[in-house]
Amino acid sequence: MARKSADPNVSRRNFLKKSATLGLGSAGLASLGMEQQAEAQNRPRWDRVADVVIAGAGASGLCAAIMARDSGASVIVIEENHDIGGHAMVSGGRVPLGGGTSLQKKYGITDSADQVYQDHINFKNRAFRYGDRELVRMWADENAATFEFLLENGVRFIDVEPTAEGGSRVPRLFRAQLPSDDFKQTINGRNGSGIVRPLEASGRAKGVTFLVRHKLSAIIRENPASGKVLGITAQFENRNVNIQARKGVIITTGGHTSNVNFRRIFDPRLTEEYQVTGEPWSKQTGDGEILAMSIGASLWATGTQTAESGSPISKTRHIGCKYGYVNLRWLPESPMFPLAGASGLTVENFQDLILVNQAGMRFWNEMDGSHEFLAACLANNGNPLRDGKKNGGGPIWAIFDSDAVVREKWDPKPPNVDLNGWFFSADTIGELAGKIKNPHQLQVISPSTLEQTVAKYNSFVEMGKDADFAKPTPMYKIQKPPFYAAWSTPILHDTLTGLRINTKCQVIDLRGQIIPGLFCAGESAGGFALHGLPRVTVFGRIAGREAANAPA
């Protein structure tokens, strides 16, 4: 083999001489120049570079970032929001991880990875029966190590004996401590901030670079449908920022519940009237999933999204506000409260009200919270049969009177209710019907229809029997003014499916092949429909480790 010239600066004369020897005349040189120009145009100009680039700074992204740094990789994390934390920030901070953690041992609880695995492949569980057992096995094996990882990175748990729930036969559930009383830190005073704030602090201390207000807009691959993933493009202040990933890109952008078009792939009924828990703090846009699919990625275990299990959609408990998820009530102290609009009236007893559809008619037993109730909410529910909107169930309204307000100990005024289309009051039922106006209420409720609905229900109270929907012993008439209508439409929560990954969190394409350099974790990943923090923390940690160990 000939030795290379010691002088890297080859003269133009020698280059031309060599080109002539190779048979490259002036036309050949021009062709070579065009090819080089085309290659240069196709190759992005990198604004930043790191070994591992992570899109999304929720719980999974934070775990991935710290694990990648612990493995020796440089890390950049982009986040669309103005702050880190994602949905995990406003979660309950509940972490049921087992397999023999230090806190389990402290309370004398015997557990193993095998037991964790068996508990989470139970075919009687409608969500677990669809799981990818290779992923569940890996998750079970990494449970204990991930719990200790959280402790090592500053997370502190409330020191009480754990409980068993969610199909587990062994007590595993611990809850994170609040890190602060400052709502600027905790956002809504939720224990989930006790997970993400310590992880953020640990990541920063270890050298992770966080870029907020950077929205993922492209995943850059060598070729549109082949080759290695090279990096990403993010939008920041109306300009593109290209970030090179020498080893890997990790998608941890959260699920797709906020993307109406994408969520309707799995359930066409989920039209725009269904709000999303976690908003307005963070949105689950599905960007990571969609952009990965555009370069060949496959979805996985999509049946879990519509298996009528878990909480992809849930009955609201906080009525009269736009965002009424059962386990999240926006507080006036929160810096996000001006966008949330109201806290809502928390229902203690659904005997105190009736639920009507967009036509002003009852449609189901108000005491029920099952998937049958949710299916009734999402049914045609008063939609016109010939004209207008056909999909989705439309708004659901809670109707009650001043006696119910007393029984529930409500204060039906702002900031508890949102008067901008989510809560109404009137001195008569007929007047109340005419006041109900909302962007998703596509028809005016007939005053006579709502009057007949209330009168009929009052007759059931007198009889002590709901002849229409079998509500157990209807207890209270709706008869004392003022009368109220409060938004009570179901709200979306979990994304239970996403991109196909293997046990190294590498993304798989439609042909079953690994997409080199692309990883995924959290709610963006499919294959294991487990609610909440245990799934996203474990797979985030795995993704960070594997991306850091990938070839550059």
Q: Describe it for me?
A:
The protein has 552 residues and is of the alpha+beta class. Helix content is 29%, strand content 17%. Strand 19 (506-508) and strand 20 (514-520) form a beta hairpin.
Class of secondary structure makeup? alpha+beta
Number of helices: 16
- What's the domain count? 2
Q: Quaternary status of these chains?
A: single chain
Mean pLDDT over the full residue set: 91
- Please report which band the strand proportion falls in: under 5%, 5-15%, 15-25%, 25-35%, 35-45% or over 45%: 15-25%
Report, as a whole number of angstroms, the end-to-end distance: 27 Å
**Share in helix:** 25-40%
Tell how many strands the DSSP assignment holds.
20
CATH H level of the largest domain: which superfamily? FAD/NAD(P)-binding domain
Provide the low-confidence segments as ranges: 1-41
Q: Please tell me how large the radius of gyration is.
A: 28 Å
The CATH class of the largest domain, by name, is: Alpha Beta
Q: Do you know the CATH topology of the largest domain?
A: FAD/NAD(P)-binding domain
Q: What would you say the CATH architecture of the largest domain is?
A: 3-Layer(bba) Sandwich
> Describe the biggest sheet?
8 strands, mixed
Global outline:
globular
